[in-house]
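pipeline/complex-builder :: batch 7 item 3
reading input block
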Amino acid sequence: METNSRILEKVKSFFTEVGEVAFFAIRFFKEVFTKPFETGEMLRQCYNMGNRSLLLVGVTGFILGLVFTLQSRPTLMEFGAQSWMPSMVSISIIREIGPVITALICAGRIGSGIGAELGSMRVTEQIDAMEVSGTNPFKYLVVTRIVATTLMLPLLVIFGDAIALIASSFVEHLKGAVSFQLYFNQVFNALKFSDIIPATIKSFFFGFAIGLIGCYKGYYCNKGTVGVGEASNAAVVYTSMLLFVIDFIAVFVSDIFFEI
Amino acid sequence: MKKSAPEKFKLGMFVVIGTLLLISALYFIGNRQNLFTQNIKIYSYFRNVNGLQTGNNVRYSGINVGTVSKTDILSDTLIRVEMLIEEKMNKVIRKNAVATIGSDGLVGSMIVNIIPAEGAAERIESDDVIQSYSKIGMNDMLTTLNVTNENAALLTSDLLKITSNINQGKGTLGMLITDSTVATDFKQTILEFKKTSMGASKAIESLNEIMATVNFSESVAGVLLSDTVSASKMKNTISNLEQSSKDITTVAENLNALLSQIKDGQGTLHYLTQESTLVRDIDSTLQNIKEGTARFNENMEALKHNFLLRGYFKKIEREQRKAAKKSSRN
């Protein structure tokens, strides 16, 4: 009986949290189109989240391209289909692996950062102070961060994909004596709009989810300094889960519109 | 919190490069699908497109020249395939070209191959329809393979019977394999054949030696084989001989015709050759002439001794003697 009530409580709190996140998102859409626009703060956040994540995304993408090509190569060679390597690697990276891996990295770096930053501001009552001083903390802290993540993540995904393909072409060039020109010729022969457009659109949603969950967890942080850690951790966990849910929905919708 | 100028520059670079990468990728992909080039639409009709999809490549002599833009089912046995071809390719693709559906490699996606046909034809234009040729599909191949398998089973069954009969010594082949007498005879035959071939080999060697001793350069055979002037003369001679034989044939034919006319006609020669009475008359006449001539000779001898004509004959004898003396002196 007690267990059932506990489960019921958990389910109730889950739906309550989902509702709160939904209201948080609605508030974001209300605030994002109303003045004043915090452009300077938004650009600063773009720089922090975009440029400063580039090295991490680039290195991860490079290693991903190398490892993916090296691991796939023996299997394809067994079938005598190593000439299909550029097509296979490019489609896999552009469609799925690139956006998901980049989003997970950003969830870890950016999401946790936002959660910790806003959480510490909440527990140190800086947000309350902003409200008292007449500044809209939601617009200044939340909207700028969510817009920044939404705009920067697709760019990070594009960089990550490009670097991964370059790394893959290095492997093919060294192992299979395939020229760079032939490699990228085969890559663009294999790719279609239905590969790159859904992946790019999906990346906007990934960025939005990272910013939204990170800001939500940080903005409503409590329990003092412990809460900051919890907010940071929860932001990463919930964002990662949400990314896979969004990915599933994106693939489902892409299949309907693009017949992938 | 204000942003510094270098940070703004870096952010700008990040955004611009990222956007350019995306646009470049979209451009290259679009370019492969001929979205940014001038295209013409051409059509072809197939009974089975074997999984051909919109966006699949169209190749002309192995080079990508366009993409499949649409496939429409017109009836239960007819599918229209619409293809977008680069406009510049209408210089080489002719109206008599043939479209076939194939696979890009063993496990690749389907493609439309346009194959140039022999013979002259006009350049292809927009909305033209080109002929199609349906290759054998996998199902057809499997059906054929099934029939082949059944035939192979029948063949192996028959082969089994034949080999068992051979093993049992039945038939000519069985006898050849199992009968030792035949084998001995065969061996003997082979030996004889070997001897014969050795003899033939020796004969050929001897012939070669004889041939080697012949001086081909100066002999008639050599001249015939190597001298082009002689060959030309020989050719002329043969040509003249041929002409002569033709003339002889003509003459013979004319003679035959003449003889036929003589034989069948009413002329003097026919009378002379065919009438036996005339021959007898001529014979008796000649006999009479002969007798008359003999008597005339007797009369002439008698006249020589007549006193009236004796002086004339003596005068002639004297003149003859004088002429003989003159000729002996000279």
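note: Helices of chain A lie at 2-32, 39-78, 85-123, 126-132, 137-176, 180-190, 193-219, 224-258.
queue -> next item
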